[in-house]
Amino acid sequence: MPEPITGRRARRARRPRAAWLGWLFAAPAVVMYAAFVLRPLTLTVQYSFYDWNGIGASKWVGLDNYRRLFTDSELFATIVHAFELIVFFSFVPVLLGLFVAATIRGIATSRLATVARTVLFLPQVIPLVAAGIMWSWLLSSTGLANELLSAVGLGRLTRAWLGEFGTALPAVGIIGAWVLVGLCTLLLLAGMSKIDPALYEAARLDGAGPVREFFSITLPSLRQEIGVSVTVTVIAALASFDIVYIATQGGPGNSTMVPGLEIYYLAFSEREIGMASALAVALVILVLACVLPVQRLTRDGSR
Amino acid sequence: MAHGLINRPLITAVTLAALLTTAACSAPGSDSDTGGANASAAPVTSATCGTGPVTLKGYFETGFPLPKSLSDEFTKQYPNVKFDIREDQFAVITQNAPRVLADDPPDLMRLPQVSELVKDNLLKNLDGYATAFGWDKWPASQLEQMRVSSAGERGSGPLYAMGLNFSMTGVFYNKKLAAQIGMTQPPATLADFDTLLQKAKAAGLVPINQFNGGATGGLAFPLQNLMASYGDPAAINQWIYQKSGATIDTPANLQATQHLEKWLKAGYFSSDINSQDYATMMSRFIGGKNLFIFDGDWESGNLDKQMAGNAGFFLMPPAQAGGKQAAMSAPLTYGISSKAKNADCAAFFLNWVATNQQARDIAVKVGGSHPMGPSDAYMPAVQEGTVTASTLTAGATIGKDNGAMDFIANATGAIYAKSWTPQLQKLAAGQQTPDALLKSVQKDYETQVKN
Amino acid sequence: MIVGRRETLVGRVLLVLLMAVTVVPFISLFVTALHPAGTYPSGLSWPDDPQWGNFADAFRSAHMGELLLSSCLIVAGVVPLSLLFGTMAGFAFGHLRMPGHRIGFLVFVLGLTLPFEGIITPLYYQVRDLGLLNTRWAIILPLIGLFMPFSVVWMRAHFVTMPDDLSEAARIDGAGTWQLFWRVHVPLAMPALSSLGILLFLWTWNQFLLAIVLVDDPAKRTMAGALGAFQGQWGTDIPLLCAGALLILVPTLAVFLVFQRRFVAALLQGSIKG
To answer: Residue span of the signal peptide, if any (chain B) (predicted)?
Structure first.
């Protein structure tokens, strides 16, 4: 065991060489990241100031594309839709997950729960495209959803859920909720298993019911897990693409058009590369603006 | 040390950022070649597929067996030619067209609206082949829609695409169900048609199934038919061809749109119209679930097979009895990428499709539509009483009345996806008025034409 | 732990219900796949004459063998390199801590939240200019780049927990930095590495956006991208589409069921750290 002082001196002395070595180790990652993420990202910002159809010459238009983003009601609506999806992709799975996890906490180690772990994860494992295909079929006018409604005497509610203006976006949201609820439940359950059982026992001795127990013990201890669930699901909502592409292509009308899909259409079908890039920049900023506060609130407090 | 910690990373970051920006500081697209593919077509003396092995790269539309049957027959006659075919639905082809033509050029491709593709030099000028093969001696109307002038207007100028056949649209009906409501002959006027729809509704039938879901705005079919009933097809063509000053927002078109709205409000379309795709419509119609569909003669062969004797076809009736009839009629357009490797062979194939006897047989039997080519060319015999026979006859009527129109969805590359589809879906849901619909489409059209 | 009997019962019922909701779409897909091709079956009705042949038809017409191979090739290109690069960088940022490592790491962390749509447009032109459009490299190279933030953050999280003394000891034994990394740290990082490998496999296999934008030929796409093309081609035939979709799901589901414990653990940790 070397003397502490010698050790520290040795480390100091090695620093310059290790410095270069460190970056050498990081180099492959840095190169790939710079070439295929940072460079395109910079270009996205650059393109957003141009009017370009992707083939001919481009024209500098300054902030015009951004101006259009906020004045063109159709484009702006995509952002509004993304926020509406947060309700389904994020709030529903997290709240439902909290409720379910709190209820099954007591049986978290039973065999049923072990099976549930596997089953609830299925939607996370399959491609979102597959989820979209399954659900477009379930929600179609002759699908299972309508059949169930008719069976319980609610036949007059049946409709083509993905084909009507009022229901298409919520229907897309439900697909997202289905994908994410299992993940949230298991995340929160894992968090709950880390809570000291003594806390609950003490609460019981004080005569607390399950509701008070939930609000005074479970919820505060889960800050970090809730933060993670919210972050993951909010990103999934704002950046949604696969499900919408398969289930509705943004229709009917533009009622389910989300930024991700609009970027794709603008860039590759309408060939308004500049506008697509401006929307892309807005999306990147939007995601950061939503996620950073959540991280700050839930991470700092718990440490 | 604290300084070092803050400053050094900052410097690194700034350097990195500078590196990245310099990498990207030239304006995008400025170096792209604008080679004069548009200027003129190279004279072609003989375009053939040669004798060595050739693989034609095709990009075709899903759900339509015609190009596949034609290519199979072609390979049988010219064994050195093979096809490498990729298929997509038309909406996807429309989206992909520009970048596929530019970056992964097919030799033969099912084309959406051509004017922007021409503007960007993505399509081969076929005038050289037209002279070499004598296409310029065919009836001019066959090729008109595929000509684009240097001003970007369609209808005249060099030829940029070719048809596998030319199709006709109108109304198909289920004969058994028609008999149920006492319909013995096709309606003579629009008012008669309204009465039939009303009767069908009263008899508890679904009068019309029309695809209008997802990225498809199939209500454009009845709408354009109504437009032609109320107004002049030539004016609609002007708009589609992007002639300067043309507008879709005319009093006649407003009447037509209001009429469509009336049908929608009366419940003549099935209630899930906004989630119905093309295949659903066909499967329901073939399954006898409804009386009418608005569709084209590319289904004739299919309907003769699957509903033998039970399917009928009529052209949209005029507003006044005895009035002229019009229909959307367009070539099934295929083009050659300006960067295609086997352009000569592709052109030879297109000529073969129009002139070879077996190919013309296939065009009618499989495609159900009239083949391209000279007016005195061989015509396969068609059995009386079939849908195919009635669509071919209807084609003659349209020719006589000079009532052929291109499709309103073909006015610009983006007008269908961007304007007609969402607007018609809104109309179907009662969220848009006819007046605002036309104004909105016109506004989009003007921006798109200007670009 | 004190739990009331009634609570347990409610919990069980709720859990079964949630599982049912999760599984029903799969069952519906399966049942629909057994109906005669070209029909529009309604709801969850068992067909009178189950068409098991639909699976064979879908397998043939979708060229499923080719698709499997393609996805495997893409995974083989993405996952090992991402693991290697991510581990090396994680080691550098978490253990070597060279000058500038904080800002360097921060740049990676910021990439964690980047939606792929944010860079897809320039990426298309970049891949085109590299002449890689419609090759598997068009998916492999960008994916490695896009996976770097997560891989680096993940591996760094492992390496910061490694005590410095471990390296000191190795260095005194005369090991160079590379040997230190390869002989001492990589073996110790195996659990973290294998979890990362599972996540990267899953995300590659299911990648959709890059596949549909950068590769037109479904036979050179990922499974998810191929499924998108399959829908484009067979969306007109619901039972066949469902059969194809199920076939495309089978490999992931099989891998998942075999490695389920690792999977669940990896995904849960993955979300926490991500």
So the answer is: 1-26
d(CA C192, CA B357): 68
Nearest Cβ partner for C177 among A21, A32, A264 = A21
Please answer yes or no on whether C216 and B100 come within 8 Å at the CB atom: yes
Give yes or no for B42 touching A (CB within 8 A): no
A7 contact residues in C (CB cutoff 8 A): 168
pLDDT at B438 over 60: yes
Mutant choice from B283, B289, B302 vs C, greatest count of C C-beta within 10 A = B283
Task: Name the amino acid, one letter, at C263.
Answer: F
Interface pTM (ipTM) of the complex? 0.89
The DSSP symbol for B299 reads G
- A32 vs C141: CB contact, 8 Å cut-off? yes
CB atoms within 10 A of CB C8: 15
Q: What is the CATH number of the domain that holds A297?
A: 1.10.3720.10
Domains of chain C from N-terminus onward? 57-273 (1.10.3720.10)
Give Cβ neighbours of residue B349 (< 8 Å, ≥ 6 apart).
B49, B56, B71, B74, B81, B108
Tens of pLDDT, residues B169-199: 999 999 999 999 999 889 999 999 999 999 9
Output B386-389 pairs: Cβ under 8 A, ≥24 positions apart.
B386/B300, B386/B304, B387/B172, B387/B297, B387/B299, B387/B300, B387/B303, B387/B304, B387/B311, B387/B312, B387/B313, B388/B297, B388/B300, B388/B301, B388/B304, B388/B364
pLDDT digits (tens, 9 = 90+) for B418-437: 899 999 999 999 999 999 99
- Cβ proximity of B58 and B84 under 8 Å: yes
Contacts 24+ apart (CB under 8 A), A97-102: A97/A181, A97/A184, A97/A185, A97/A187, A97/A188, A97/A229, A98/A188, A98/A219, A98/A222, A98/A226, A100/A185, A100/C14, A100/C15, A100/C18, A101/A185, A101/A188, A101/A189, A101/A192, A102/A192, A102/A210, A102/A214, A102/A218
Q: Which residue of A has its CA nearest to B272?
A: A160
* Residue with tokens 């790491």, as numbered in its chain: C105
Taking the C-alpha atoms of residue C96 and residue C81, their distance in angstroms, rounded to an integer, is 21
pLDDT at C274 over 60: no
- The HSE-up count of residue C34 (CA atoms within 13 Å, CB side) is 14
Domain B167-328+393-450 annotated CATH 3.40.190.10: yes
Q: Does A268 touch chain B (CB under 8 A)?
A: yes
Task: Find out whether C266 and C93 touch, Cβ atoms under 8 Å.
Answer: no
**Terminal C-alpha separation, chain C:** 32
Helix (H) or strand (E) holding B180: helix B175-180
**d(CA C232, nearest CA chain B) in Å:** 6
Q: Give the span between the Cα atoms of C131 and B103, in whole angstroms.
A: 9
C113 and chain A: CB distance < 8 Å anywhere?
Answer: yes
Contact C237 B278 (CB under 8 A): no
Between CA B175 and CA A168 the distance in angstroms is 36
- CA distances in angstroms from A111 to A114, B172, C12, C91, C258, listed in the order given: 5, 60, 11, 39, 18
Structure tokens at C254: 């099989």
Tokens for B411? 């006015």
CB proximity C195 to A under 8 Å: no
What residue type is B52 in one-letter code?
G
Based on the domain organization, do A145 and A261 belong to the same domain? yes
Q: Work out the number of other CB atoms within 10 angstroms of the CB of residue B326.
A: 27
pLDDT-derived band at B36 (thresholds 50, 70, 90) equals very low
Residues of C in contact with B10 (CB under 8 A): 103
Please indicate, yes or no, whether residues A168 and A285 belong to a single structural domain of this protein.
yes
Q: Which amino acid is at B161?
A: A
CB pairs under 8 A between B and C: 51
The superfamily CATH assigns to domain B54-166+331-387 is: Periplasmic binding protein-like II (3.40.190.10)
